[in-house]
Amino acid sequence: MRLFVALDLPVDIRETLALMRGSMPGVQWVPAQNHHITLRFIGEITDRHRMEEIDLALSRLAWKPFDLSLAQADIREGLNADSLLIGVERTPQLEALQSQVESVLRRAGCPPAKRRFQPAVTLGHFSSSQRADAIQWVQRHNLFRSKPMSVEHVTLFESLRSLGEHVYVPRAEYAWQPEMPLTPEEE
User: Fold this and answer.
1) Is the dihedral of CA 34, 145, 120, 30 positive or negative?
2) In the chain, N or C terminus with fewer CB closer than 10 Å?
3) Active-site pick, 35, 36, 125, 141
């Protein structure tokens, strides 16, 4: 199983982001149902015992719900293709939650994250020959700002490959737990 931990987006925000998809030809657009904010990529897990440790670790997450907004279009360079994305406003609560996810996964035996946390929603992928069009796309959508969304749970997703596309299947949700003690940075 190829796993990652993310914030799932509400349907109305997904629909708003989907409206941006047709505005640049030749882009491999991410289906709206796959829009999310990755907190931590885990990778391939084949050991059932390791999967149980990950599940238990994530069930121990504790935070107070907080609001988060998406804002500004951007480009992220990749190895095979570049990506069009919408950024996420960084907040102390988001940073603390992501740090907590990283910490519990490391205690569950996962290796450290390979990339620095850069919260965003990937909307599509394009080739380097489309760079000029991508810059115009960013300029057209750079003032985008979503309404605030409440972060009340994180989701463990499995990434499957089906007919050449990725399908992200939620495997478990971990809701905030008001009875769990918070760490000092979360209060």
Assistant:
1) positive
2) C
3) 36
Amino acid identity of residue 127, one-letter, is: S
- Give me the DSSP letters along 37-88: EEEEEEEE---HHHHHHHHHHHHT-----EEE-EEEEEEE--SS-EEEEEEE
Residue 12: which residues within 8 A CB-CB, separation 6 or more?
Answer: 147
153 catalytic, yes or no?
no
* Closest-CA residue to 53 (of 103, 118, 129, 108): 108
- SS3 state of residue 36: strand
Sign, Cα dihedral of 19, 20, 21, 23: positive
pLDDT by 10s per residue, the chain, length 187: 899 999 999 999 999 999 988 778 889 999 999 999 999 999 999 989 999 999 999 999 999 999 999 999 999 998 788 999 999 999 999 999 999 999 999 999 999 998 899 999 999 999 988 999 999 999 999 999 999 999 999 999 999 987 777 899 999 999 977 655 555 554 4
